Amino acid sequence: MQKKDFLLKRYQWLLIGFLVLIVCLSTASFHFIQNQEQKKTHQNRKTKTAHYTTLKEKAAQSGSLEQLVNKTHTLSRDYVPQDLVTLNVKSVRAVQLRKEAAEALYRMFDAASKNGVTFVANSGYRSYGDQEKIFTQHVQTMGEAKANAISSKPGESEHQLGLAIDLTCAEMSGDLQQSFDNTAEGKWVQAHAQDYGFIIRFPKGAEAQTGYEYEPWHLRYVGVSLAQKIKKSGLCYEAYLKKYGADRVK
After folding, report:
1. Residue 154 per-residue DSSP state
2. H-run or E-run covering 219
3. What is the DSSP string of 80-116?
4. Is the Cα torsion angle 149, 151, 153, 155 positive or negative in sign?
5. What DSSP element (H or E) covers 187?
6. Sheet holding 215-221, edge to edge
7. d(CA 207, CA 142)
8. How do 84-86 and 120-123 pair as beta strands?
9. Which side of the chain, N or C, has fewer Cβ within a 10 Å radius?
10. Contact status, residue 64 vs residue 58, Cβ threshold 8 Å
């Protein structure tokens, strides 16, 4: 009887030891999995953060779609975009844009056409040398002060980026005038350009900030998401950057 009691107690202690072992292993496994999940989450956060930068930083990057070019943020004489394509649209002259901007413009032209609106491209990419000739001609005909209000000095033009397009229409006889905003084409641009990634770069009332007179024909490609945000804000690009430059973008 004593032997049986001894064996029973031994089995009980073995069972207790086995249960304790299971609990310890389960606890250790739980902590291991939890640590691994925490490491994975931390790594995912780091990876996700690495894919973002601020709009202000993007605007300062050479060649970015968001790059800011104006009288104080200039391009070098030798800057030439590497992905220029010649547009296959109705135009006053041969017009080039960077590939992404060109594809967006095609979509915009097609959408406008379905609404009975027909655009004519007037001017796209211009080299540093092209802009130098244009600005010099304006200075000779109207003086430097006026020329600087309606035209860019070489290195200060968005056209050199390959992301700017001047649009006109048959009603304007291919010309570029502020009255473009009263045409069907001008009104369509004001209402829909942002949905294709374009903004009216020199809007009315922003002359002091942009440094240029109102140009309803001059569109700048910045991508759909940013263009829609700028349109909604009612600000010119300089003012938008000042207010939202710390925002993160892809």
Report:
1. T
2. strand 215-221
3. --SSEEE--S-BSS--EEEHHHHHHHHHHHHHHHHTT
4. positive
5. helix 184-192
6. 120-123, 164-168, 215-221, 198-202
7. 19
8. unpaired
9. N
10. yes
Neighbours of 200 (CB within 10 A): 25
- Report the SS3 class of residue 153: coil
Residues in a beta bridge with 221 = 198
Q: Residue 54: enclosing H or E segment and its boundaries?
A: strand 53-54
User: DSSP secondary-structure letter at 199?
Assistant: E
β-pairing, 248-249 vs 198-202, is unpaired
Structure tokens that stand for 44 in this block: 């995912």
Chain segment 32-67, per-residue pLDDT in tens? 566 666 666 666 665 554 568 999 999 999 999 999
Predicted TM-score (pTM) of the model is 0.79
Tokens of 170: 């048959």
Residues in the chain: 250
Q: Domains in the chain, please, with CATH?
A: 54-249 (3.30.1380.10)
Over residues 175-203, the pLDDT tens digits come to 999 999 999 999 999 999 999 999 999 99
